[in-house]
Design a protein that fits this description.
homodimer, four-stranded mixed beta sheet, 136 residues, 2 helices, mainly beta
């Protein structure tokens, strides 16, 4: 009798939600800076694995998209991890330019101030949205 | 005529989902290691701000909880950031012990292997769940 292999396909560990989506945290591999969080469906994860560039599912536009397809700010994938519950991804990338569509390196450019109420900007803007996407 | 203040309350930037929840990425401040992702409602965020220890909302148990209330593995908050869309939090913490209930430092202890299919464990387990929570 042969033993069943203990090796599981990585996809088998993952739980997509009722909409078929899983949240993906994107982190800059070299600096550890958390850049953004976006959602993936199975197809965008497979495209991310096969191309080495991050692909997501936009819930607001109901659209498959590659990060950087308009801005040029592509993310080159270094590692894809998943959590103990299999319901969140953590993707290490090399980021070209600003990750945030507002022109900041990271989408997390604002923090709660020490008083716990006000918001303060914690990093410099690299580009304006007009410089990235052109005037509208 | 008085000018309206431009200072917004940080909470006013946030968008909780239809269930009243917002995902919170937890990162170790000193190392940059992404530790876990969990969900907060307004009450758990307020408790996090006021106590300086992370509190969440468990979707599976439908329960308010403080990280470390059973395990002792409390997270001391250093910073609370939010993203451009106001729909994700990034919380910098000082972590006591293992963040993961499976005894790993980070919940993201497994990655896709280079072949893009198999899962591989990428860090050493610090404790077994039995050591953390006692035998069941």
């Amino acid at each position: 009798m042969r033993l069943k292999t203990a090796i599981m396909n990585a996809y088998d560990h993952l739980k997509f939600n009722a909409d078929g989506l899983i949240p993906a945290i994107v982190q800059e591999a070299a600096s550890g800076r958390a850049l953004m969080m976006a959602w993936m469906n199975r197809a965008s994860l497979e495209a991310t694995v096969s191309t080495g560039k991050t692909h997501f599912w936009s819930r607001s536009r109901q659209k498959f998209w590659m990060k950087g397809e308009t801005s040029g700010h592509v993310q080159h994938v270094k590692d894809i991890a998943f959590d103990c519950d299999g319901d969140t991804l953590l993707i290490q990338v090399e980021q070209s330019g600003a990750a945030c569509h507002e022109g900041y390196r990271s989408c997390f450019f604002r923090s709660f101030a020490a008083n716990g109420a006000e918001a303060r900007v914690t990093e410099a803007r690299l580009q304006t949205p007009e410089e990235i996407y052109g005037k509208k």
